UniProtKB/TrEMBL annotation:
<dbReference type="InterPro" id="IPR002999">
    <property type="entry name" value="Tudor"/>
</dbReference>
<feature type="domain" description="Tudor">
    <location>
        <begin position="93"/>
        <end position="153"/>
    </location>
</feature>
<protein>
    <recommendedName>
        <fullName>Tudor domain-containing protein</fullName>
    </recommendedName>
</protein>
<dbReference type="Pfam" id="PF00567">
    <property type="entry name" value="TUDOR"/>
</dbReference>
<feature type="domain" description="Tudor">
    <location>
        <begin position="422"/>
        <end position="476"/>
    </location>
</feature>
<dbReference type="GO" id="GO:0005737">
    <property type="term" value="C:cytoplasm"/>
</dbReference>
<feature type="region of interest" description="Disordered">
    <location>
        <begin position="264"/>
        <end position="284"/>
    </location>
</feature>
<dbReference type="InterPro" id="IPR035437">
    <property type="entry name" value="SNase_OB-fold_sf"/>
</dbReference>
């Protein structure tokens, strides 16, 4: 929430004009937040930006200068905001600086952009645009600009503008204005290109600015991988080291309000349209009928014959995550995992995604600081894998003709015959924001609702039967990305006839023992029960009796002392150690 004081103070702090105001002011009325979408009075599109208020790991997009560095969060949704065939293009007849549009960003792909400048070169009009999700600028011809639908205006810019704190360009003349020289910017780009990811630590400001276009002021660090070690390196320190004559070191800022942005030196390069930049294809498909001949792509690849077996429930069985799969993540006899569905975790029912080095890749943790960045890097790699799989599911099942309803009767018949049932589920908004709109699930039971287990994001939930659809066999070729775990060798001493864990013990387990901020390390026994119970029998059994559950004896949270087992014995009353519990009683 933006809290702003009196009007004179606003003018003093903000000035009289703003590039991208957050709120608007009118006489004798309260400030009004400006929302995304189309302004009904002007017909103009408004798209807000992401303004970071915390530290984050990001990927570098482009750097114009130390005070104009474009980055993007690791969980960005750029792909979902791009337009591909079939799509009805509507060329823009009239436009001006500040208007939003779509333009070719790559071959046969359109991206969102904003118009920055209009010029005439060699007697022909050209337009400078900025791709708001890619963080890059291009000069293009007006005919490649097309109208942006309002539905695409409700997602903020994916590109985030960051300004490096505590550095300034040198100047020999105290009275001359400072600016970043071309060489300074080239050195910075060369440094940044050496890091696949950056960590930005945001500096907080005592002055509120009514302008989304202002950069995030931050200390910037490169995530460095030196063979067996991953560490964090200050970009400012490297910039100073490689450019002593061009950079002045400032006193460490504690308030971003004192930060100054310096312009980059202007160049005399002639604005010109890059002939290699994509244009609008002559054979662009505007309708689904025109698209029929290109639906053999990965996203749409499928046999749509009504008599085919691409959606047959018996054919569409997702493989269990087995020993050979877990071995790919073993490092020094241990497996790192990231906890999922934290709010519903119980000792006998945990969900976690394995992370870690790829097969035959060696990495070690060498210090307390590095212990954070090693799993941080592996988490990013795991997120990339998950995002790739989620994008394919979203793209495929968002196409209505790829959705086949899953009747309750078919589910019940499969269970009676001893078959597991796998499906895709249209999930609620809270879960979809993080893990995608369409998710693979196992249907455990049906009554008024469907009881499902999320294969890739973890957890069990009741969902509407109408939210389930048959899964295509191409999405059953890989095991779940999330493991279901059970802590073995420990239990709570309770009254006779009362099994499992008390509510008090579970609450203590979540609040004191676990952490959703740090990865966990599994060691010791790590095995599956291999239950042969049928789906109907499992409906009457505890969740840990399922054949896909992994039982673990030692679990440690990185940066925590002692194992989870040890801490449960120490901090939760009536918890005792009992080998092989709960699966051997």
């Amino acid at each position: 929430m933006l809290c702003i004081g009196s009007k004179p103070l606003e003018n003093e702090l903000f000035g009289s004009t703003w590039k991208t105001p957050i709120v608007e002011f009118a006489e004798k009325t309260d400030p009004k937040m400006i929302l995304n979408g189309k302004d009904p009075s002007t017909g103009k599109i408004k798209i807000n930006r992401i303004y970071l208020t915390r530290s984050a790991v990001v990927e570098i997009l482009h750097a114009e200068s130390p005070n104009e560095i474009w980055v993007r969060l690791s969980n960005h949704i750029t792909s979902e905001l791009c337009l591909r065939e079939p799509y009805k293009l509507r060329q823009m007849a009239n436009f001006e600086v500040g208007d939003y549009a779509i333009a070719p960003v790559s071959d046969r792909v359109f991206g969102r952009c904003i118009i920055e400048e209009l010029r005439t070169e060699d007697r022909r009009k050209i337009v400078r645009i900025f791709f708001i999700d890619e963080g890059t600028r291009r000069w293009v011809y007006p005919e490649v600009l097309h109208e942006l639908e309002e539905r695409l205006a409700f997602h903020p810019w994916q590109a985030i503008l960051v300004s490096m704190a505590n550095v300034a360009p040198t100047t020999a003349d105290l009275y001359a204005s400072r600016e970043w020289k071309t060489r300074d910017c080239e050195i910075l780009r060369e440094i940044l290109n050496g890091f696949p990811y950056l960590r930005i630590d945001v500096l907080f400001s005592s002055a509120l600015r009514n302008d989304y276009s202002r950069p995030v002021i931050a200390d910037i660090y490169g995530v460095k991988n030196d063979g067996n070690e991953i560490s964090c390196v200050s970009i400012a320190n490297l910039f100073i080291e490689y450019n002593l004559e061009g950079v002045d070191v400032l006193d460490s800022l504690t308030d971003a309000a004192d930060h100054v942005d310096y312009p980059a030196q202007e160049t005399n390069e002639k604005s010109a349209v890059d002939p290699s930049h994509p244009t609008v294809p002559d054979d662009w498909k505007n309708t689904e009928e025109e698209m029929a001949d290109v639906e053999s792509s990965v996203i749409f690849k499928m046999s749509l014959r009504e008599d085919g077996d691409d959606f047959d429930l018996q054919q569409c069985q997702v493989p269990i995550f087995e020993d050979n799969d877990i071995k790919k993540f073993v490092h020094d006899g241990k497996v790192l995992v990231a906890l999922e569905n934290f709010e519903n975790a119980e000792p006998f029912e945990l969900y976690a995604r394995p992370i870690g080095p790829k097969k035959n890749e060696e990495k070690t943790i060498v210090s307390a600081e590095t212990e954070y960045f090693v799993p941080c890097q592996w988490l990013l790699e795991a997120e990339e894998q998950y995002r790739s799989a989620a994008e394919k599911l979203d793209a495929f099942y968002s196409n209505a003709k790829n959705r086949k309803t899953l009747p309750k009767e078919e589910i019940e018949e499969m269970h009676r015959n001893g078959w597991n049932v796998y499906a895709v589920c249209a999930v609620h908004e809270d879960r979809a924001v993080v893990t995608g709109e369409w998710q693979r699930v196992e249907v455990l039971q049906c009554d008024m609702f469907a009881h499902v287990r999320y294969l890739d994001s973890g957890g069990r939930e009741k969902v509407l039967l109408t939210s389930l659809y048959k899964i295509h066999k191409q999405h059953c070729t890989y095991p779940p990305l999330c493991l279901q775990l059970c802590l073995s060798g420990i239990r709570e001493r309770r009254e006779i006839g009362r099994e499992g864990w008390s509510d008090e013990a579970v609450e203590k387990f979540r609040s004191v023992i676990l952490s959703d901020e740090c990865p966990m390390e599994i060691s010791g026994d790590f095995e599956m029960l291999g239950s042969d119970r049928t789906p109907l029998e499992l409906q009457q059994s505890p969740p840990y009796m399922a054949p896909h559950v992994w039982f673990i004896s030692k679990l440690r949270i990185l940066s925590h002392n002692g194992t989870v087992h040890d801490n449960m014995l120490k901090f939760i009353p009536n918890v005792i150690s009992q080998p092989k519990w709960p699966y051997q009683r």
